[in-house]
Amino acid sequence: MFLFAIGVGLCLLSALICVVNTRRDNSITRKAALWLTIAACLIFVSEGARTALNNQPLQYSFSQIAPQLQFSFSIDRLAAFFILVISIVALSVAIYSLRYIEASTSGIRRNLFVPLMNVFILSMLCFVASANSFAQLLFWELISLSSFILVMYHYEKEETRKAGIFYFIMTQMSTIFLMLGFILLYNATGSFTIASSPVLTAGTNTLVFIFLFCGFGIKAGIIPFHKWLPYAHSSSPSNISALMSGVMIKVAIYGLVRYVLFVLDPQLWWGILILIAGTISALLGVIYALKEHDIKRLLAYHSIENIGIILIGLGLYIIFDSYGLSDLAFLSLAASLFHTLNHAIFKSLLFLTAGSVVEETGTRDIEKMGGLVKTMPITASLFLIGALSISALPPFNGFVSELMIFQAFFQAFAIPSHYVIVLLVVCLSLFALTSALAAACFVKAFGVIFLAMPRSDTVQQAHEVPKSMLIGPALLAFLCVGLGIFSFQIFSWLGYQPPMPNLLWVSLSLFIFLGLTVILVRAASGHVTRRAETWACGMPTPDSHSEYTAAGFSEPILTFFKPIYKTDKVIERNFWDKYGAVFKSGRADIHVMKIFEEKLYIPVANAIRSISRKVSAAQNVDLDTFILYSFITVIILIIVAGWVL
Amino acid sequence: MMNPISIILIKVLFVFILGTAALIIMQKSLRSLFSIYAIQSLLMAFVSLVLFKETGSFVLLALAVLTVVTKVIIIPYMLNRVRKDSGIHHDAEFRYLTPVSAIIIGMALIFVIYSSFLRVFQLSQDNLFFLGSVIGVSLAMLGMLVIFSRKKIVTKAVGYLMMENGVLLFGVFIAELPFIIELFIIVDLVIFILLAAVLSMGIDSTEEDLTRKLNNLTKWFKQ
Amino acid sequence: MIFLAYLICGLLLLGIAAVVLKWRLKGETAAASKSSFLNNLTLAHAAAYLVITGLAIIRLPLPVLAFNNYLFMDPLAIYEVLIAEIIFFLAAVYGRGYIKNLLERRVIKVESLELFYGSFNLLMVIMVFTFFSNNLALFWILLELTTILSAVLIVTLSDRANVIAALKYVFIASTAMLFSVIGLILLFATAKQTSGIGTLNWTELMLIANSLPPSLFIFAFVFCFIGFASKSGIVPFHTWLPQAYAKAPSMVSAVFSAVLINGGIYGIIRLYSIAHQNSCWHTITVILIVFGVLSIAVAAFSMLPRTNLKKLIGFSSIEHMGLVLIGVGLGTAVTLFWTLFHILAHSLSKALLFFSAGILKNQYESSYLQDMAAAFKLQPLATWGVIIGALAVVGMPPFPIFFSKLFILVQLGNFSLPVLIVVLVLLLIVAAALAYLLINSLTQPGENTLKPYRIDWTMKLPIQVLFVAIIGITVYLAFGLSGILNTITASLGY
Amino acid sequence: MASFAVYFVLNTVFVLAVSPLFMGLIKIVKAQMQGRRGPPLLQIYFNLLKLFKKERVVSLNSSFITLISPYINIIFILAASLCVPLVFIPAANYGFGNVILFLYLMVMAKFFMALGGLDAGSSFGGMGSSREMTISAIFEPVVIIVVSALVFVLNTFNIHQMFATTLGSSVLTNATLFLTAAALFIILITETSRVPVDNPETHLELTMVHEAMILESSGPNLALMELSHAIKSTLLMALLINILVPWGLAASVTPLNLLIGMLTFLLKGSILAIFMAVFESVMAKSRLFGLRTFFILAFALAFVTIVFELLV
Lengths: 645, 223, 494, 312
Prior knowledge:
Distance between the termini of chain A: 57 Å
Oligomer: heterotetramer
Largest sheet of chain B: none
Strand order of the largest sheet of chain A: 1-2
Distance between the termini of chain B: 55 Å
Largest sheet of chain A: 2 strands, antiparallel
Low-confidence stretches of chain B: 202-223
Strand content of chain A: under 5%
Number of helices of chain A: 24
Largest interface: A-D, 83 and 82 residues
Helix content of chain A: over 70%
């Protein structure tokens, strides 16, 4: 705990340095502050890892400040694991930011960046470490607040404004749900301490679960509540997107796991609910990602997908657990948590490298990129590793967690209820679809961004980014590979023998095959490589216009999933009179409906707006009416006081 | 314990006070309006006097004198000044309620207040106190009714004065109520009237024509 | 003694003002020197009050009764007075630059300066004595006087809209306050019926509280409530509030929002603490919560279509008064603790908001949100003031309202879950409206035609002080404030 | 360990050796069905050798992806081949044989093949990649359901053990396996890019998928691509064969058993190859978006298997 405190102190010190120096635009201060953050993150990583391995909970409580107001912290294995996840990502983001902040923006606004980022990271860590729900709520709000300001960083842009409003409202909504859940728990148990509470009635148990599920679900970006995620992730600076997508939404997962596992009494239908929500999020997330051509928004939709996968694991855990299948339950939970770590790593990696690309090209539209693999080879390779991991390809880490989930699914037949089995089989097939679509999506993303010819002029001026912007992601890429290949060993080390293949042997055999193939090909062929123009059926030299576009690439899949996208076609016609003058002209317009926005968010917003207008209109009158209001109220009060009370 | 004649007298006065209230609700001529208000205040002073005779509390006598001085003489005088200065002599506009419906609502109001109070004051010690409170609250409510149903600020001021009368009527039945309070209420009232008069004509009355300003005021009132 | 000190202080300064104005600053003297002289006096006045109150806290054993028990000083009164004085003092500091700006822009006339500062000082005196009055009737009268003085303060800007706003304020507040008198009389009669001696003193009412007949007391409470609620901007008696806030000069709006509306709530807290001794408090709880929720609801829905920054802040005050009403109504020691904390936090946040809004209004010569382009470039401090203030008001940590709001809501959850859900949804709408309006207005790109308006350091200082204070009271909660609030709660018989 | 080492070498060599053979056989049968003579049986081997010796021509636009993707393809397909015992089942499998691992090793190869298609910037390559990824994505649920039916019926998710189970039992006890086998056949057709999903013989942009992706490959690159494609077909064929008719698969490592195993596999593989060729000849190429029905059929078959097993 002492070292943790030192880490926290370093973070705060780093924030302070920048806050004190707000007036001057001084890059040395920012660098120094970031180095402090890096040091703090290193402490957190080592301490988190140590606590997770030792399995000895750390605890600390402050004295009570006011009625009900007390802070206490406790770091058990679960919390330590999440601290590890947060601090690993934070570490590489901090390294990445050393140059990114200097490169991406200008002015003294940058001085606010480091302190806010530190507060953001610290509040996430503290949320995880909190031992009472009140403190959790506080840090939850701090997470929201700091990330909100960071999202608003480029406030001049129209889209940022929209994203900011959306994000703020959604985070407030999540806080409200959490508040409801925590208040219910408090009122049932009489304390804010997070502990198993056998006194809960069935009704409270269920209600608390629903509230917490919604609250954490909004922050995690589960499907009906996901809309803020693509907006906020795409308009914030890339290192912040990495933090938000990599760890912030995991903090919500932590909350859910913590309460479901340690506080509430899970029921079968919770598992089914979480499973279905997870499956839908995963599937729709990836389907929406396929149609995105904004690189960061695409990645954001993939976050929704991966949160879905994590939830699938969690849902399976509850389902298996309620049938007493503890081995399977544990496998699902391990898969879910492992995927949490993996997603944090590869998604941050992707966001950071995408940030480099956006920084160099000045656009987020992948249709304008292309050919970057030649100008930014290292960034491209790092992105490729991230893409392979997120597509769940062996031997990278994403594969391992998805493999574990598949295996858990395959053993669904141990469940006695046929209905549940059929449900699980359906979810399984959708899950498989998700994972394959993700691969398709990343073939598109990598292919269109990095391969072939540049699609616009700005892209041609791109250069490889500075070292620190490579080291940060490289660290994560290294983990992607390492966690994949040595997954079996890591689990054994933690004392769990998962029923899964040892990828070390697979990698070894791949290595052998690679050596043999290279030797054989070298021996057989004449090592002559000639460069020539791409063949284009005899057409003149193909230029970038003849390349396959991102839209073209995903078109077949979009066609398959037409019912989900709800394309809205507006076709109007021109009618010509006999002199050739138009007397009715029209347009043809196809746009993909944003179904949740148009069917859920906007109607609700409009309803509130119309009530607001009415309430406002009622107050936008003259004195007579105001007195009339008072008059009526007084009469009502007299009647109530006389007759009712 | 009270002289039955006094009780009857007070009841008669109550009836008259309610009558003046009804007249204030309906009256369109400002001049008559102010006169009716003066009469109502006079009736209030009579109530105080009757009670003074019964209880012998000099507070009530002082109150009666004060009422006569301020409400029967000074305030109507001031109101008439305002009326003359502004050149407005009639307030024929009604909002929300026509005079007839206002009277009907007023009657219903009195009944509602009566029945509510009846339930609360079940074991009341003093029948007259109960009646006084009902009439007082009703008068206050009727004053409010005047405020929101009439257009001109002066009329509204009269409505407010009527409310004040209602409250005082209620107050006189509790003899021990410290005199200083009553005094303060009346002082407050005078300040209020001054303020309302000044406000309704604007602060800088030298610059512009008063009539136009007052007409404008009603227009401005829309927002 | 101590009360005389307050009074003499005020009278002395008024005397000095009158003399000096008559002899030294006659007519032809520059407007600026007159304004700064008057401001100095006001500052001195406020500072003197702070010193006296400080002395009183250190030296006097509480509660102090004086003037035939008409005045008294107990922890709650001192607390409220301290809040009021701090805000008055900051407003006076702020006013130094602010009034100068108004004079330059000819928004306020030199001739009305005396009236303005006079009313301002008088309002301070009366506000202090409102909180110190032990007698409910005296309390009522002083509260009514604040209405009239506020109206004068609004009117000094001599714009038509100001006159109308003041008129609305006077009519709505006064008519409602008359019902309070009915309540007072009923209370007096009830007390007389119970103990033989009619009384309106808080201290004596507290002693006989448990023997008051419940139904009569409820009746009296309801009537009193009507008036006090109208002073605190509780729906549906709130209708004067947004316009009055919008039209008043910002330093006055700050005082209104941070001090004046506490007056009504103060009365309600007092009355409720009497009810709390009585068996009828459950009924009153329901009434208060209904009005609290109603206030929050109307304020929440009214905020969304707002275009005027100061009106927006005004509606936020209504919402917070609703929350405070709920806090009072729940009637446990814990909620009272947090409600009192909420009042303090709300006052500071509102003062911050209005001070910042005042700067923005001077910059753009409009307080309409759509005019505030390039706010960050032109007025960074004021913009951050508005943002921090808004975040504080919404109840984001580490700002103090987060704590008070949360713990009041915790108790509300204990009272009724559906009500809690409704309130939370309404609070969400409030937050959404604030975020929506502020983000949209403050991030507008600006044309280059506007130049940054030079702001006097005296206008910046209060904002900076409030920044620190808002965070500070959260920290202070751990180092002493908590004890003070507990004392107050105990002194009210919880 | 020793057993696995033998398996490692033998299985790899065997699959490398026989894969082109089946390709050739299919070509001959198809030619015969169309009334042509067709190439010699061993022509594919000569083609591969020739390609290995030729120079490598790469596009000016291409990057290192073009260079590594054939290697990635072949090594991942070879690693996948370790999951499917063709001749004998080793005593220990060291994690190979996991059915998900098997599938995803192949997806990895496909991933790089698709990237390779995009690398040159030709619209053919892009089209091929797009279609390939689309088909594979749409088809994935089918594959997984079929696999889960297998897992359910055979009660293991290791292919080695599946074969061991089927080897140790008669067909009749696992009647539902026939349903699964039909579904597996559809997987085989789809994954190896055959009619009606794809037409391996065409260079017509309307129909090509797999060929379009490797259009820019040449020399050793193309050879590696072709070889890995052939191996993939063989692996899927082996999966079908050894689940449905595992007899002849060596249970213990003796030279005789191995010989029998190889011969029986060649025989069964040839029969299946002929059947595939016939099937391909009588089918018409389907529209890309018409494939839904085809996939749903496989999905239904597997699903019915699961339901049958649940009810019985």
